[in-house]
From TrEMBL:
Protein's organism: Colwellia asteriadis
The keyword Coiled coil is assigned to this record: yes
Keyword set, alphabetical order: Coiled coil
One protein family per Pfam: AAA_22
Protein name: XrtA-associated ATPase
Length: 347
């Protein structure tokens, strides 16, 4: 929407991970170095953990995009709330292995035959497991069993696990000792500090070929850091919204006043909220019956209705802004068409 106004060739703060926009903080660079080290070793597990939105998937995509080794055949799993049998089926599917039946023994045999064939071709398999905190402990154990596939004392498959902080608890369980002994490196991602937030935003703007200097005021980055707590995904959501706001309001510079206004708008929305859980206003503890004639519950219902009213009002305001945007866009297109017609008549 705002790309042409700010001279971008594309939206710089999209949510979908894109290796071209990868920004390596010291933590991200360390994690990426561990992944690369794991590749060089060709064995064991690498584990990368971090809070939601800190860039684990982006690191995985960046690694896959820059492998530069035709002898590594990689597959990535993103749906990981799986039983051991479902995990094996998905591994076979992602590596495009033909399986005769859904029998676990047959699937394991097909996977082993595939890995041996790769080895004879001078290749090896790499499995990246994203959102690994969703894996049940017995499924993590199945991954360990896959790592037992060897030929001439060399492992035939290597696995990287990326997940939220809950993954630490799964791996730390007493019955996971054998798995822990096969972890050759691990890293934990952290949110960005204020300087990294500034560099992160400027990096993504440059990647989108921003042609405006000082798009954000000097003190804007500190405030963006405070609003997003340095979480890259929140930064993407927030700055994308700031740029849309700046376009609608025809701002050349995003000031602290604009940041505060957008943050206030987003604080009552159902999606893209920066602080807290947007559903908290509707958490009514359904395990306890509601006594309608209770003065406390009546007051609670009133509060909920007020929340709903605020959300509806915000939604209407957004619709108005969108209408303004469409009207502005139509005017721009009409002007461009008129200019084109004039040039054609002159020629």
């Amino acid at each position: 929407m705002y790309e042409s106004y700010y001279g971008f060739t594309e939206r710089p703060f999209q949510l979908s991970p894109d290796p071209r926009f990868f920004f390596a903080t010291s933590h991200h660079q360390r994690a990426l170095s561990y992944l690369q080290y794991g590749l060089d070793q060709g064995e064991g597990f690498i584990v990368i953990t971090g809070p939601i939105g800190t860039g684990k998937t982006t690191i995985a995509r960046n690694l896959l995009a820059n492998l530069g080794d035709e002898n590594i055949v990689a597959a990535q799993l993103v749906t990981t709330k799986l039983s051991p049998e479902e995990l094996l089926e998905l591994v076979a599917s992602e590596f495009k292995i033909n399986v005769k039946s859904n029998n676990k023994a047959d699937i394991l045999q097909a996977i082993e035959n595939f890995l041996i064939t790769l080895n004879k071709q001078g290749k090896r398999a790499l499995l990246l497991v994203d959102e690994a905190q969703n894996l049940p402990a017995e499924t993590v154990e199945e991954l360990r069993m896959l790592s037992n596939f060897q030929l001439d004392n060399k492992p035939l498959i290597q696995s990287f696990l990326l997940g939220q902080e809950e993954l630490k608890g799964i791996i730390s369980a007493p019955d996971m000792e054998q798995f822990r002994q096969r972890i050759i490196a691990s890293a934990h991602l952290k949110p960005l500090d204020v300087d990294e937030v500034k560099n992160y935003i400027n990096h993504r703007l440059q990647q989108a070929n921003c042609n405006k200097e000082a798009l954000f005021s000097d003190d804007a980055f500190q405030l963006i850091f405070e609003k997003t707590l340095g979480v890259p995904r929140k930064i993407n959501i927030f700055v994308d919204r700031l740029l849309l706001f700046g376009f609608l309001e025809e701002l050349n510079t995003i000031s602290c006043a604009a940041i505060n206004e957008v943050a206030e708008e987003m604080s009552v929305e159902l999606t893209g909220s920066l602080n807290g859980n947007p559903n908290e206003a509707f958490d009514n503890n359904t395990t306890t019956p509601v006594v309608v004639n209770s003065s406390e519950n009546v007051e609670h219902i009133k509060n909920v209705l007020r929340e709903v009213e605020e959300i509806l009002e915000t939604t209407i305001q957004e619709k108005v802004k969108m209408t303004r945007y469409i009207d502005k866009l139509l005017k721009q297109k009409s002007k461009q068409y008129a200019e084109l017609q004039t040039k054609e008549s002159e020629s």
